[in-house]
Every structure is written in structure tokens, then in C-alpha cells.
Glycoside hydrolase family 5 domain-containing protein
Amino acid sequence: MSMKSQLKAADGSSHAYHQTTTNASVLRGRGLKEAPFELFAPGDGTLRTSAGDLVVIKGFNWFGTEGQHAMLYGLEERSLDEYFAFAASNGFNAMRLLFNQENVERDPPTPMNDPRDGKITFDWRKSPELRGTTYIKMLQVVSSKAAEHGILILLACHRLRMQYPGQSLHAEWPGDWDGLWFDNYWTENRIIGNWQKLAERGLCAAWNVVAVDLMNEPHGAGWGRGGRKDWRLG
């Protein structure tokens, strides 16, 4: 679905563009290796196709993979297919997929239940594609399933560690107090290595993985102020 929009340039001139909502019906059924169109960021704060159409993203967060259970919440009740079909049918075309650096580095097997608290993380009969996966493979499966339903992925680092015992929830990412995407243990080189691992495993090459989030909510960071917390210099 598209409509013409009048957008004003910096010099005050107007230009007509087609605005596409890029809903799931546009994206669905294109295959896991084929993008329905190329996306470009022309530098004016918009996202466009090669034809100049303005791409409008309607996204949602789905938490769980960033924490100690290492799985999207709710999969003990319903399947990946059901959730993505519901999201697509309600006009969503993007999802923020969360992860933590510890599990990317270790890449442990995906548990069907957590022995620490007894929580069932997913029902393999409803989502058999998740059975036997490792952490990174699980992220791949989720993003591939999203692609089948025409949903784009923003891959987001939400925490460095999967759990911070004895600390409050807001302390689970360094950006909250330090403004950085690494700390003294999870050094910048280790973080870069983990991102390279995600790329080498093909996750960043999937057509529907269109963006990454270096660190969740970096409240302590600055932009253009100089110093080690200046993300413009990072």
C-alpha cells in the first residue's frame, strides 16, 4: 500500500514521494535469502527503497532472549509461527531481537526448561525448529521465522551478562551508569569479536536483519562532548 507524500527539503523545496507501509503482505513469501527491495538511508533521517519510496516501520520488542532463560517469553504457550502471524496480521513489520554478549561468546545449548527456577522456556512440539539449537542458532531460527512472515529484525545488544546476581534490574547494562558498550571484563575487543561471530554465522547477512543496536539505553553516553563516553568518536 502506498500514498504520495510531500516532503520539504532543507532548501524549502517540496518533493513528491510514494510512502510505502511495507506491511507483512508486501514482505511475506519472499524467501529467506531474497529481499523484496533494497533499503537505503539517504542521510535525511528517512529509510527508502531504491525507487525512492519512503519506508515506514511499525515494530515491537519481544523480550526473553537477553536474560537468564535465553528464550523469547511465551513460547511455552504458543509457537513462533502463531506469534509472528499475529504480529503481521496486526500491521507490524519489524521486531527488536535482544541478546546478551555472554551467551553469544559461550553459545550454550538452548534449554527447554531452566533448572534454576523450573521455568519451561519453550514447547518443542509447538516450535520444533528450536529444539537442539545453540544460542546463536536460536537467534538465527527466530530471525528466519520472522522473515517468513515478512517481519524485519533489529538485532539489539541488551546486556553484557545474562544475569547480574544481587543487583537491581537497571544495573544489567553498562550504558545505564557508564555510557559505554563494554566494561573492564567484557572489553571492547571481546565485544567486537562477538559481533564478528554473529556476522560470520550468517545472522547479519539475512535479508530481513536491517539494523543493529550496539547497546541498550546508553543513558551515561554523550555525543560530541569529547572523552571516552563520546559515542561520536567511538
About this structure: Confidence is low (pLDDT under 50) at residues 1-25, 29-33. The first helix runs from residue 24 to 27.
